[in-house]
Amino acid sequence: MNGVPRHVAIIMDGNGRWAISRGQPRLAGHRAGAKTLEDVLGWCREAGVEILTVYAFSTENWKRPAEEVNGLMKLLGLFLRNKRAKLIRDKVRFRVIGRRSDLPEKLQKKIAALEAETATFPHQLVVALSYGGRAEIVDAARRFAALPPERQTEAGFASCLYAPDLPDPDLIIRTSGEFRLSNFLLWECAYSEFFITETLWPDFDHATFGRALASYAARDRRKGGHA
Fold first, then answer.
1. What is the set of active-site residues?
2. In terms of C-beta density within 10 A (0-12 exposed, 13-18 middle, 19 or more buried), how is residue 198 classed?
3. Using only C-alpha atoms, what is the Rg of the chain?
4. For 160-209, how does the pLDDT look when each residue is reduced to its tens digit (9 = 90+)?
């Protein structure tokens, strides 16, 4: 039996479908999803989850219509501005993983400033922006090739990832009922447990979060060992 997962990762899926089903623009779903993220971060702290990693914007998402992409970038900027004080008050360390150089320069500066302000806090919110699991592996491989031969091991490769100090996620939650990783944490998920829910991300509630933690707690995590 397991206790509370130290590191929970979430593929936040279904914002667009949630909005469309209500006759609203897709950005309305993203705004509702941002509120859900704030709630989940609080539930993680209450439950004893130390690290929450969320998939906010993938490398593939740049292919979406410019209006939606620009709206998402503005929404991210507003989130950083509006939640800064709460993150600091709650002692939550904010971090971004991904190809942040793809992001608007103004947003990059806001991210760097908040990361610096919260760098010493014990709880962590890790946001994957312009992130792709394959892109991370490619970027890590470039750094790995420069390591001396004695460090060219699995541990050495892991040290070249975007956030090498983070433990692998214990539990990955995917909303909207899709049974795929969608290019998320491909290296890090080797022994992660998965919880899939049909719930669209803006409707993800405390009860569903509790079921995810209970499902994790009931599993036998052998990681290749004996039963």
1. 13, 61
2. exposed
3. 18
4. 999 999 999 999 999 999 999 999 999 999 999 999 999 999 999 999 99
